[in-house]
Each structure stands twice: as structure tokens, then as C-alpha cells.
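ingest -> fold -> write
write: protein_1
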Amino acid sequence: MVTTTLDDELIKSGKELLKQLDTANVFVDAALWFYFSDIENWKLILSLPDLIKQGPKVAYKEVQKALIALGENLALSLDDIAISKPDVPLLQLLKVAIRTGPDISHIRLSKNVINGQLIEDAYIYRLT
């Protein structure tokens, strides 16, 4: 689904997915919606450090299980999600400015500059 607007339904769905992963004891150290202006699309970025060590296929499979457990009422699919390593530059940059702890937060960053980098738009649930 190509979406140029992050609406309440996507925000709620991202939160529900994160809760489901937490319930399944999947360690998520970063979870956020990020707007990629080059493709004019939002992606839910999830950093799953324990699973990504086993390969992206394992990480995506675990996320797919969480999506299935939540049923068809979510406004997102696996196509809307990007699994990331915890040390990618984008997450390292965001962690310079924000640390949320393990709980689920609701922090919106719009048109912010961090260390000279423009963050056009992001909605952060967790950055630990």
C-alpha cells in the first residue's frame, strides 16, 4: 500500500503490532514510522536485533506471525514494514536526539534537523 499520509489507523496498527511482538517476547529495540520522501511512502521500521542475527527471513517470518495473530483488522501488511539492523545510520541518528526506553511512546518529529540531517517526518514508538 502506497501511503503519503500517516493517519490514525496506521499509527494504531503500528502500536498494536508492537504490542503483539512484545507479547510474543520478540525484542524490539526500535519501532517507528518513517517517511521516505524519495519514494513518497511511509514504512514501519522495526529493529529486531536478536532475530536479524539469524537473517532477515527469520525476522520477517516472526513479524508475519504477529500480523496473522492480530487478524485482518490492521491497516498494514508486511509490505509496509522494513526490518532493520540496530546500527543502521538512520536509527543511530535518531537515537542522538531521542531515547524512549522500553515502553511504547508517541513522538512525532516533523521537519526536524539532527546533526545536519533533515528528518522530514517520523512517528516514534520506541528507540532504546
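write: protein_2
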Amino acid sequence: MSNNSDFKCRQNWSKLCEEKLNIQINLELLASYNYFYLSSFFGRDDIGLKKLVEYFNKASLEEREHSQIMIEYQNKRGGIVNLNTIQKPCINLTSSSYECVYEAFLEALKLEKKVNQNLLELHSIGDNDGDAQFCDFLEGEFLKEQVDGISELSQYISQLEMIKHNNYAIWEFVNKL
């Protein structure tokens, strides 16, 4: 097994950035796994909201793609990727149409805020280490997208709060995603 000094490309890539990026990679995979769970939940025959299956499956794939981009970046910088065991989703949705849709979007918002908070911490570490390239990478690839995603989820939650227990309105909301 190689140690970090064996990588010819390693320059200004701190051990702390390497470690924290590995945490972010695993966090992206955790988010992907949770979205995959949500996708499978809405595909059940007692729920059957195919648009939410598609929505959360797309979100799962996007998070997986983020982890892949970060893995490639870690390798480019001369770091070593460390993957951890992915924790089982701790999402307990009810079966009533309003509640399960609403709760799913609340869970998604919590996930996105957690991912975003860690990205902001990564950016701060890169900035403190004088690693402008790492900060640029985070800004260009992820931070704007996180803000947009959090805003979108927040708006969906607000819309769901307005329609509450109107099952037809929820059906319409889901089918317009």
C-alpha cells in the first residue's frame, strides 16, 4: 500500500482536506442511499406515486455522481479515498398520502442542509490551508447547486403545507414534479 508521499501529483493538498473530503464522499453516498430508499418507498403498491419514484431516484443518482466527482478529485490531488459502511436510512414515513409526501421532502431538506453544511466546512478548511483550487472546485461544482436544491425543497415543503390533507391537490403536486 502506498503512502501519500508516493503520489507525484500531490501539492498543497493537506491531510485535513483529504480526510474531510473523504467524509464528504461518504456523506454524498449516504444521501444517495437515503434518496434511493425514498424512491423505493413511493414505488410500493400501497403508495404508487411514480413521479416521486422518479424524483427521488434522480436525486439518488445525482448524489452518487457527486461522490464520483469527489473521488476523481481526491485521486487528482494525490489523496487516498476511504469509503465507509453506509448507514441504514432512519426514515420512518407514514402511509397517509399527505404525511408521507410531506415527511419525505422534510427528510430531503435535512439531508441537503447536512451535505451543504459539510461542504461549507470543507471550503473553510481549504481557505484556511490556502488551497484556492480546492475552494474553486467546491464553489464551481457544488455550492451553488446546494443553495438551489435547498431553495427548491423549501418551496415544495411550503406548497405541501398550503394544500395539507387535500389528496387531490397532493396528487396534482406530485404529478407536476
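write: annotation protein_2
The radius of gyration is 19 Å.
The helical segments are 15-42, 50-77, 97-128, 132-163, 167-175.
pipeline exit 0
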